[in-house]
Please model this.
Amino acid sequence: MPLELNLNLASFTEKHRAVPLQPNTIYDVLILGGGPAALAAAVYCMRKGVKTGLISKDIGGQVIETAGIENYIGYKYIEGRELVDKFRDQVKQFEIGYSEGLKATSITSDNIKKVYLEDGNFYQVKALVIATGKSSRKLNVPGEKKLTGKGVAYCAICDAPLFAGKRVAVVGGGNSGIEAAIDLAKVAEYVTLIQFRDKLTGDKVLIDRLDIFNNVTILLEHEVLEINGTEKVESIVVKDRKSDEKKQIDAQGVFIEIGLIPNTDFVKGIVELNQYGEIKVDCACRTNVPGIFAAGDVTSVPFKQIVIAAGEGAKAALSACDYVLKV
Amino acid sequence: MPLFDEKKKKELGDILKELENDVTIVYFTQEFECNTCKDTKSLLKEIAGLSDKINLDIYDFQKDSEKTKEYGIDKIPAIAILDSKNFDPGIRFYGIPAGYEINSFIKNLLEVSGKREALPENIKKRIDSIKKDIHIQVFVTLVCPYCPSAVMTAHRLALESDKIKADMVESSTFTHLALKYSVTGVPKIIINEKHDLVGAQPIDKFLDVIEKI
Model:
């Protein structure tokens, strides 16, 4: 097997000019988030020449966990990580205020808005672009929280090699669940795929790819009741939704791929959300609060796609710049 | 068969032009090479061949027991990186730095050579006030895109402080260690055996843990 070398050339060759965020400055635009919407917004704001900062827990959002991308225009195929590196380099070529590693915990909606971070610091700004995206949805069953990082996992491409020769369960029969099952079937002894609904909802090409493996069992119309283990995951308990019959399945790993929830906890009560917890925006990415804009997967805009998030980020940035010029 | 094609060679060669001073890669393998030892040796030889500033010393884990002891190597393949004065800042790679880890390895060569960005003043101060011996192990897999950043952070800490040593440990090569430290998700960071962090944490999160030790 040839040796894989995933060299990220740009991270070595590009000159980065980003600077730390200044607590005593009033920024024109602060962008919260690190996915395609946030990074596109950052590029647009910097090119407009407004004083801009970007605050994100991590860079890349869901894109970084995507193995191959074949529908981002301009690339027939690109790895998620590589696309993220390109995005990041395009942002950091500017002298943008930049804070990576900390989450925003709350915001205020005054004319000069404040963004509080988890370390207790806050930053001040005229216009906000919220592009905090979505995170993995939790199962919310007993054992899940306690065993996260101890066999309960949310990144199959990262952690699959750790389950070589072991028995694992994948929860979720959509595209990400099926992709996780494929990645794991290559190395694990046995994979059980658990799907709530009566059929797999992923794309046919992926289902066909999964069908090739003979070490995979698919349980349709089953739900996970609990995850067992003291120090590590040992088994899960599932219920057949038709017969109500319960059974225990041995597993050392449980990969949870049951969709996503918007990262909007920190803006609850400030901006209006829809029934899914997504930020409601109009066609110019405006929320119900003047000076607060939102873009990408965190919003009510339909179809969560990288190319759409990037476009929405650009739009939110231009709306925010317009707002700043007028106040 | 060479690992790098002409294009990769040129790319890596261009990156390595940024090396400020000489560095020495110290590599430990053995006569009957372990599974990934041979590939590791080829990789290091090719990288060393791309710059006059890179020296490569290869030792036998068994026969060169003095060197093994000097560098505190307890498993192979093992790599240490020394600066131009042959000073050992305490950076180790256990397992082949391929896949995504090629990024942390190349970055570390540059950093040890002197090419590194200044750390924020408050971070520098916190590192300087570490008085206890700290050993960081970062467990990775080669297919994990988050892992290099955890490795680079740990190694940067080692570079900045005489008190800190930091290892990358490739989980699939050293499965017994992954088992011992219950590594079921990467990157997993073990500090002084007992304290752990999961995920690619920023430098201040490392320091938060270290300061409590």
Notes: Chain A has a mean pLDDT of 93. Residues 131 and 159 of chain A are 27 Å apart (CA to CA). The radius of gyration of chain A is 21 Å.
